[in-house]
Specification:
Blueprint lengths: L6 E10 L2 E11 L4 E5 L6 H9 L6 E6 L2 E2 L5 H7 L1 E4 L11 H11 L5 H14 L15 H14 L4 E5 L7 H12 L6 E5 L3 H7 L2 E6 L2 E7 H5 L2 H6 L5 H4 L1
Parallel strand pairs: 3-8, 3-9, 6-7, 7-8
Antiparallel strand pairs: 1-2, 1-4, 4-5, 9-10
Length: 245
Amino acid sequence: MTDAPLFQARGVSKRFGSFTAVSGVDLTLNLGESVGVIGPNGAGKSTLLAMIVGSLPVSEGAMTLKERDITRMPLPDRVRCGIARAAQIPQTFARLTVRENLRLPAVFGAGLRRKDASVWVDEVLNLCGLDDQAEAVAGQLGLLSRKRLELAKALAARPRLLLLDEIAAGLTQPEIETMVTLVKSLRRDRAILWVEHIPFALRETCDRLVVLDKGEKILDGDFATVWKDDRLQSIYMGVTDHAAA
């Protein structure tokens, strides 16, 4: 890890009229770190990711990436600077092949030229276990493969900060375990921020756990300590250590 944080959010808030979805959140991420974000529905988790990637403007506060102010930076520029998000519902180009889906972010996100883009796409296909489906049409893939492709698309942009928004949602237990193994393999040379409702997935992959509730950051610390905190247990009535195992 470097001395200076890779990413910092200071007092970021998001309001929709009179409703405050995220309120004064501070967040620091270091290179090589994997951080989970958990909280009940409506806690502001996905809104926070949307502000970081630039699909929603910040109402208040500031954000930096590698000490560069990105608070008002448009989404395409943030991708080129090193931020990418994989969404809960795969946002793939259904009529393009898997390889073609990855080539677009490699060229327009990572800024790679033709030959370098091809080499990098092959590497991403291998990393995400999509080698044998490279020429398959994206719209014909099963759910797990589409989830892999959504993650691969984000990775193809060569992000330093990889945002994962409930990418395990809708998967079976074995499929979730497959995604966990994949995410664990991606930590090198980047930071990962993973919003998820499946506790064991975060426990297996994350150093830290951040808890949001009603738009505010309630807890932020190492996973084991935060998971046992009474405040988390009170927010998640019925979620216990046994349920997370």
